[in-house]
Amino acid sequence: MAGAKGPAMPRPLLLLLAPCTALALSGCLAKTALDVATAPVKIASKGVDMATTSQSEADEKRGREIRKREEKLGKMQRTYDKQLARCQDGDRNQCDEARETYAEMQQISATLPTEPGD
Hints:
This protein is mainly alpha-helical. The chain is built from three helices and no strands.
């Protein structure tokens, strides 16, 4: 049994499978070639997407920043009201604190957008 290779494939079947295999492999090769050719474009566009901020993202960020300033201004207003009440009760130290808080409130107010009609 020296030299036995196993069952031989019939020649007609081999002639039928060879072109089918070649077509299947050529399709795989074409897809691979297309993937390789388009990869730099896909990578570059992904990088641009990650590096740029869309207008809606910029608007959302600006809105968050404005809300934070408005919240801080509201908190400072409550603090100012308490300090002013204590000042009116005769606590001079609270009068100084109220002046400082009011000045800081004015600085924050200047950074907030105004509503139309204000």
